[in-house]
Amino acid sequence: MTPTSKLSLGLLLTAAAGFADAVGFIELGGHFISFMSGNTTQLGNALVEGLWPVARMTGSLVLLFFLGSLAGSLAAIWAGPRWGSAAVTALVLVSFAGTLALAGLGLPAQQFMLVLATGAGAQNAILPSVGSVRLGTTFVTGTLFTAGQDLARALCRQAPPWRWAQHMLVWASLLAGALLGAGGHQRFGLGALWGPAVLYVVFLLAFSLRRPAR
Question: With 0-12 CB in 10 A as exposed, 13-18 as middle and 19+ as buried, what is 22?
Answer without folding.
Answer: buried
